[in-house]
Amino acid sequence: MTLKEQIAEDMKAAMRAKDAPRLEAIRMLRAAIQRREVDERVSLDDGGVLAVLEKLVRQGQESIEQFSAAGRADLVGKEEAALAVWSAYRPAPLSAGEIEDLIQEAMAHTKAASIKDMGRVVAHIKPRVQGRADMAAVSARIKERLS
Fold first, then answer.
1. Cα dist. 101→52, 80, 118, 132, 134 in Å?
2. Is the pLDDT of residue 121 over 80?
3. Which of 30, 106, 124, 138 would you label with 79, given CA atoms 20 to 30 Å apart?
4. What's the maximum distance between 2 C-alpha atoms anywhere in the chain?
5. Is the pTM of this model over 0.85?
6. Which residues contact 107 (CB under 8 A, 6 or more apart)?
7. Which pLDDT band holds residue 134 (cuts at 50, 70, 90)?
8. Direct distance between the N- and C-terminal alpha carbons of the chain, in angstroms, rounded to an integer
9. pLDDT surpasses 90 at 12
10. b or e along 23-60 (b: 16 or more beta carbons within 10 Å of the residue's beta carbon)?
11. What mean pLDDT is reported for the chain?
């Protein structure tokens, strides 16, 4: 079962259970997926769905920070509930050791020797860590290793 099919089934289950917060979060995810499919005129595979999911999670985390700063505990709770639902669709995160192994393997594969080769290393690693690690942190580690 693809990720999109799983999301559709979970939405039906949330409707049957009358679980409004879960249903709202799943509908928001489905709307984002459909919007991207319409905008790009493609049907997203699991990788594309994960990219949409990561963007929603990142936006949700930023919203939580802003709502917390504004003292809006009610909205923080709502965003945290949505993040909890979306997190169920994310693959298991990579450990620090696994990330280091991937960086080492990518550097060997691309024969990276200096900071000029960073783009090739990132391009090699990105498909393997999508949704499983923060690319900003991975890029920082690569930069540190190549400097």
1. 26, 32, 16, 14, 16
2. yes
3. 138
4. 56
5. no
6. 121, 142, 145, 146
7. confident
8. 43
9. yes
10. bebbeebbebbeebbeeeeeebeeebbbebbbebbeeb
11. 92
Distances (CA, A) of 31 to 39, 42, 109, 117: 12, 15, 39, 38
Interatomic CA distance for residues 22 and 15, integer angstroms: 9
Would you give the distance in Å from CA 98 to the centre of its chain? 18
Distance of alpha carbon 11 from the chain centroid:
19
Q: Are 44 and 32 in contact (CB under 8 A)?
A: no
What number of other Cβ atoms are within 10 A of residue 88's Cβ? 12
Q: Which amino acid is at 51?
A: A
Residue 127 half-sphere exposure toward CB, CA atoms < 13 A: 5
How many residues are listed for the chain in this entry? 147
